[in-house]
Amino acid sequence: MPLLDLPEEILSSIVSVVYQSPPGVGVYCTRKDFHQQDLTSLLRVNKRLFHLTSNILYIHPIVDDPHQFLYGIDKSPEKAISKANVLRNVKYLDIQHKQSTRDKYEEQNTYNRLKSAEREIWEDNVLGKSKDDIENCEKAFELLNRLVSKAIFNDFSDFVMPNLDTLRVGVYDQGWWVDKMKKIMFDNKYPESRSIPHSASSRNLLDEIQIELEISYQFQRLFLALVKPKTLIRNLTAGPLSFNLPFNAQEDVLLCPPKQVINYLNYNIDRRTFKSHPVIIPYTINKWYIQCKHKPRVIQADEEEEDIYIDYEGLMVSLEILLQHISSFKLPITNHNDNYREIEETILEVYDIDKLEYKEYGEAGKVKLVAGDQWIGDSEDHLMDSKQHFPTRISSKLTSLPLKRKRFGPWGMMELTPQGLAFVDIKIEDPLKFTVLIKNTSSEYI
């Protein structure tokens, strides 16, 4: 019996065997490792195999070229074979940067330590390799914009991936964009660290990349507004496909934000350089999972032979900057109808933040040193006045301990207790409705 004469269920079983399982989360891979070459070939044989194959191929696609993935979506969905109908199968969608999944980028000397000629070569290389990802976003935005301008469909959520549950960003991304943007931003912010003190090339390079990235923000904003994922998971914070949108590009996202936005903050990567942070998306639940492997701490004696904690890895600085980032949250001005939102407040849950905190105990278990003495020492002289206005504490996690404790730091999110540094859950009612909850978890990937 010819293959195509087999019953539908048998053909479906054969096609499912051809499916190649995606690589494990966090595993380094190139495009050939996740591209379904065999299924793609079956897709082109005839209409029958097209429908059978697309039902499997598009359930969980991994995409590094959004334009190629969406190509044809602006055509009429009434045809038997159309991209719009195929995309109805998508339940989970992974998006990666093409540059980060081609080949593992070669390690180079730190940007801020390069000489003039080496800096020029490094900058030209970064600009050249960034083009593909940015241009793919530009073409994808033009494609979606044509779709919207046709105004054929009244409800795009029933047209563009209506069954999409989870959009996951950067799971297999090897961090090319994160690595390069951090080095450029660090060089620009700390010019005294350069080998060439008066070079301003990083400022020019940063400006050029930021201008190019504006079109990617337009794509990300329109894409999120059309597909409306229930959950957005972000594993990186830099690049044209990071979906880490600035507020001024989030107006359409605010109309119907994801039910939850999950971010993984990996402090194991190059902690000493400038660290970007996830944007807090308003009117939804934001979850931050801090990932950081514990390493031996360095204690050195000073001239008076007192132990001093030396934070070579920059974790304490990272903790302070992270809390400052949270305390700078402000709601953007929007004219959208509030009825579209499921919740009227913004919730941020931060998991395992204590991984970025160091504390040392003295006699009788009393805390002798916390945070490398940046905030707290034996004297506690520089603690903020307890009468200073802070957001409302939701509850005390240490109710059995004396309540005479002083909150300090950004928004008073920390306090010193007999057991060490503790973090405070807070709630703001006016003009924001913003809640910050500090939690612990096993930090497993979702």
Structure report:
This is F-box domain-containing protein. The chain is of the alpha/beta class and 446 residues long. It folds into three domains: 1-57, no CATH class; 65-76 and 93-356, no CATH class; 365-428, no CATH class. The protein is built from twelve helices and 17 strands. It has helices at residues 8-18, 31-34, 37-43, 47-57, 66-70, 83-86, 98-102, 116-150, 176-189, 201-227, 251-255, 315-327; strands spanning 62-63, 92-95, 166-169, 231-234, 260-266, 285-291, 298-301, 307-310, 346-351, 359-361, 367-370, 392-393, 407-408, 414-417, 420-423, 426-428, 434-439. The strands form four sheets. A ten-stranded mixed sheet has the order 1-2-3-4-5-6-9-17-16-12, with no helix packed on it. It has a three-stranded antiparallel sheet with strand order 13-14-15, with no helix packed on it. A two-stranded antiparallel sheet has the order 7-8. Helix 8 packs parallel to helix 10. The longest helix is centred in the N-terminal third of the chain and has 35 residues, at 116-150. It is globular. The two termini are 44 Å apart. Mean pLDDT is 76; it is low at 372-387.
List the helices and strands and how they pair.
Elements: H1 8-18, H2 31-34, H3 37-43, H4 47-57, E1 62-63, H5 66-70, H6 83-86, E2 92-95, H7 98-102, H8 116-150, E3 166-169, H9 176-189, H10 201-227, E4 231-234, H11 251-255, E5 260-266, E6 285-291, E7 298-301, E8 307-310, H12 315-327, E9 346-351, E10 359-361, E11 367-370, E12 392-393, E13 407-408, E14 414-417, E15 420-423, E16 426-428, E17 434-439
Parallel strand pairs: 1-2, 2-3, 3-4, 4-5, 5-6, 6-9, 9-17
Antiparallel strand pairs: 7-8, 10-11, 12-16, 13-14, 14-15, 16-17
Helix pairs in contact: 1-4, 3-4, 8-10, 9-10
Protein name: F-box domain-containing protein
